[in-house]
C-alpha cells in the first residue's frame, strides 16, 4: 500500500477536494472508501470523527484545509496550493472558506431535495457495497443531509430564493473567471480546487443543474481544466 492513504467518503466534496490537491501536487496516493455501512467505522479514524483523513507515513491529518496547509508545508518544492504573496494568499483563503462554509450547503440542498439527484447520491455512496445496504443507507443519508441544511438555515428558505441565490453565486464566479481563467491570480490554487469540488458534486448528481451550469462558458472551461 502507498505511504500516502486518503480515507474518504467518496461522495464528499471535501474528500474530492483532498484527492484533487494530491493530484495537483503530484503526490501518489491510495484511497480507502467508507461507502455504505462502512461509514460507521469513520469515527475511529480521528477525534473529530469525520473524513477526509490523510495518512502520510503513519501521521493522520483530518480536515481538508488542515491537510492542504500540511501538504504545502511538507512538500514546498511541489506546486503550491497557497500563493506566497500575502494578499493573494488572503484572497485564496477567503474563497476556500466560502466554498467550505457556504457553497457546500447549496450542494447538499440540491442533492437531498431533488429525487433524481438523491438517488444518484445514494448509488455513489453505496459503490462497492452489497445492494441491500441501500435500503438502510438511503433513509440514514437523507436524514443526515436534511439535518445539516436545517441547522445551517438554508433548509428553512423558500426554494425559489435558494435557487436565485445560487444563480447569483454562479454569475459572480463566471465574472471572476473571465479575468485570468482562475479565481485568484493567473494559476490554479486551493481556491479553484475548493470551489470546483463543490460545483462538480452538484454536476455529478444533479442533471438539472449540470445542464444549467453549461450556460456559463468560463465555468465550464475552468471545471474541465480542474
From TrEMBL:
Annotated Gene Ontology cellular component terms: cytoplasm
- TM ranges are none
Which residues are in the GST N-terminal domain? 2-79
Q: Which domain of life is it from?
A: Bacteria
Q: InterPro entries given for it?
A: Glutathione-S-Trfase_C-like, Glutathione-S-Trfase_C_sf, Glutathione_S-Trfase, Glutathione_S-Trfase_N, GST_Omega/HSP26, Thioredoxin-like_sf
Give an example GO molecular function: transferase activity
Q: Keyword annotations for this protein?
A: Transferase
The residue range of the signal peptide is none
Give the GST C-terminal domain ranges: 85-226
Q: What is this protein called?
A: Glutathione S-transferase
Look up and give the organism this protein is from: Acinetobacter rudis CIP 110305
Amino acid at each position: 500500500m502507498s505511504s500516502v492513504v486518503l480515507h474518504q467518503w467518496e461522495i464528499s466534496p471535501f474528500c474530492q477536494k483532498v484527492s484533487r490537491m494530491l493530484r495537483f501536487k503530484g503526490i501518489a496516493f491510495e484511497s480507502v472508501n467508507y461507502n455504505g455501512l462502512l461509514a460507521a467505522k469513520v469515527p475511529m479514524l480521528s477525534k473529530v470523527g469525520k473524513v477526509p483523513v490523510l495518512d502520510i507515513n503513519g501521521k493522520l491529518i483530518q480536515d481538508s484545509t488542515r491537510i492542504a496547509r500540511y501538504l504545502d508545508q511538507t512538500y514546498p518544492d511541489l506546486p503550491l496550493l497557497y500563493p506566497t504573496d500575502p494578499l493573494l494568499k488572503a484572497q485564496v483563503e477567503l474563497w476556500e472558506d466560502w466554498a467550505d462554509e457556504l457553497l457546500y450547503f447549496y450542494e447538499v440542498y440540491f442533492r437531498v431535495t431533488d429525487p433524481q439527484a438523491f438517488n444518484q447520491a445514494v448509488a455513489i455512496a453505496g459503490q462497492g457495497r452489497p445492494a441491500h445496504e441501500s435500503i438502510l443507507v438511503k433513509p440514514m443519508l437523507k436524514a443526515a443531509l436534511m439535518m445539516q441544511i436545517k441547522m445551517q438555515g438554508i433548509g428553512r428558505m423558500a426554494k425559489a430564493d435558494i435557487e436565485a441565490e445560487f444563480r447569483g453565486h454562479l454569475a459572480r464566479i463566471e465574472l471572476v473567471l473571465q479575468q485570468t481563467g482562475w479565481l485568484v491570480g493567473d494559476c490554479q490554487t486551493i481556491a479553484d480546487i475548493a470551489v470546483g469540488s463543490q460545483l462538480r458534486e452538484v454536476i455529478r448528481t444533479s442533471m438539472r443543474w449540470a445542464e444549467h451550469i453549461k450556460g456559463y462558458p468560463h465555468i465550464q472551461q475552468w471545471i474541465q481544466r480542474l
